[in-house]
Amino acid sequence: MALAKTRSVALVGIDGFVVDVEAAITSGVPGLHLVGLPDAALSEARDRVRAAILNSGEQWPQRHITVSLCPASLPKRGSSFDLSIAISVLGAAEAVSPAVCARLVMIGELGLDGRVHAVPGVLPAILGAAEAGFTSVVVPKANGAEASLVPGVKVIPVGTLRALMAYLRDEPPPVEEDEDDAPMPASPDGYAARSRPRHGAIDLSDVRGQGDARRALEISAAGGHHLWLSGPPGCGKTMLAERLPTLLPPLERSAALEVTTIHSVAGTLPSGQPLITEPPFYAPHHTATRAAMIGGGSHRALRPGAASLAHQGVLFLDEAPEFATGVLDALRQPLEDGAVTIARAEATARFPARFTLVLAANPCPCAAAKALDCLCTPAVRSRYLGRISGPLLDRVDLKLELEAATRAELRYDLELAEPSEVVAERVLLARERAAKRLAGTPWRANSDVPGPELRRSLALPAESMWPVDKALTEGTLSARGMHRVLRVAWTIADLGGRDAPADHDVSEALELWKGKRS
Question: Is residue 26 within 8 Å of residue 84, measured between CB atoms?
């Protein structure tokens, strides 16, 4: 019996697990048989692999071939195992040294002509292989830049099976035709979403008027606070939300790798950009399902949702009352924990989901541009906005009711409107003050600080707390709301260059939490 082994990686969520791919050639009815819990796409690999081997000038063993994917209990999906299956079969047929095959982790889909096509999830797969102690990986040429982000791993990008065989045999690389090295196309994942606008195309100075809203946007960016904007159509809600990412600093290396890992699994990495270095902006359509919002799928294909795709960035829900109530309430747990855990009978996946939530809504379903034109009764208005549950709004730090910009603001506000670059500098300084204060803790932004810590090491004196004490006595502020007010107060103090919030900082934070009319 001839036997050879290679390795590949199975993904469960964003975690990669090394899989032994063993091929045994024995006597029996000729054919290729896969064992080890493959899904439908993986089961079809037998046809792809056979055609790719023959079209690469290699001989297909006319004997009984068994390919085992171990551990068998681990769910395996997709076509990324094609390359490792082909090499294990050729190794068992002694077309290449089995010893050379066993040292490599191989990831890639094979075309019938022997070309190696790009696959999603390469970055988390390489990270999983590196954690398991492997130092050499073979990936599709189109995924080479993404794979090279992992330090300490030798990446071998290949365009064809023929080129890989030449490498394993220590032969000169073959002369090949130009391959299609296009990266994986972005997957819509079942819902429509707007990706982040480019910084060069938009700027905060585009917004006329709305001084209070721009101030709230700055506070949100500096502390990572969630934001609610309501107002008539055309008052600037969407413009403001889309410009929030322009105020955020670039992602740190560890955060960039985490964000890129999520988008790699989802197949939404931007073309020509293997590493996402700027906070993402995600705006799902109001018809999005609960699975599209927080993630889901079968145990074989657990995928991140919009909440995770917006990790370390902004999740914008325009026309928020139009979303299904269950979809909105599903965000309550990620807002508290910063992660989404999807449990199935055979697998559980955890996706990071620490984002800044921005909700925008018209005051009524008719969306009249002027209040005089609105035909909605107070009951209809209340019922419409009541689709946003109280517990969800209680988790939002900043709430503003916007009015349409005046004619004077539309015509003459250009000189007064600060550009994103100026505001982003203040945001960066405020974040640095917060990071210095929180050094030695697991938190980086004021919005991350838990309530008990606010009452202990970050407790404020009584003269600064009187606005909160008054609201608590009047019953207009909950315990969760108090913590959110204090977090915002610390951010306001950081923006003002103060060591601790004063009473006016707390008052401004309380006014923003209750709902300020712009």
Answer: no
Phi first, then psi, for residue 352 (nearest 5°) are -60, 145
Q: Rounded distance, CA 397 to CA 221, Å?
A: 12
DSSP secondary-structure letter at 249? P
Closest CA to 505 of 258, 219, 158: 219
DSSP structure string for 328-344? HHTTHHHHHHSEEEEE-
What rounded mean pLDDT belongs to the chain? 89
Strands 2-12 and 15-26: antiparallel
Nearest Cα neighbor of 141 from 83, 70, 68, 224 is: 83
- H/E run at residue 243: helix 237-243
Distance CA 101, CA 46 (A): 19
CA distance 423 to 111: 50
The pLDDT tens digits of the residues spanning 348-406 come to 889 999 999 999 999 888 877 777 678 888 898 889 989 999 889 989 999 999 887 77
With beta carbons less than 8 A apart as the criterion, state whether 146 and 269 touch.
yes
pLDDT at 279 over 60: yes
What DSSP designation does 245 have?
Answer: G
Exposure b/e, 161-181, CB count within 10 A at least 16 = b: bbbbbebbeeeeeeeeeebee
- Which residue from 200, 61, 50, 55 is spatially nearest to 115, judged by alpha carbons? 55
**What's the burial of 442, exposed, middle or buried (CB within 10 Å: 0-12/13-18/19+)?**
exposed
Name the residue among 336, 317, 314 with its Cα closest to residue 327.
317
Nearest Cα residue to 31 out of 73, 7, 63? 63
Phi, psi values for residue 516, rounded to 5°: -95, 135
Displacement of CA 137 from its chain's centroid (Å) = 25
Average pLDDT of 86-113?
94
Q: Closest by alpha carbon to 144, among 185, 107, 187, 103?
A: 107
* Distance in angstroms (rounded) separating the CA atoms of residues 96 and 58: 11
Rounded to two decimals, what is the model's pTM?
A: 0.88
How does DSSP assign 122-183, residue by residue? Answer: HHHHHHHHHHTT--EEEEEGGGHHHHTTSTT-EEEEESBHHHHHHHHTT-PPPP-PPP--PP
Which H or E run includes 349?
A: strand 348-352
Residue 196's nearest CA partner among 270, 116, 300 is: 270
* DSSP symbols for 414-469: TTTSPPHHHHHHHHHHHHHHHHHHTTTSS--SGGG--HHHHHTTTPPPHHHHHHHH
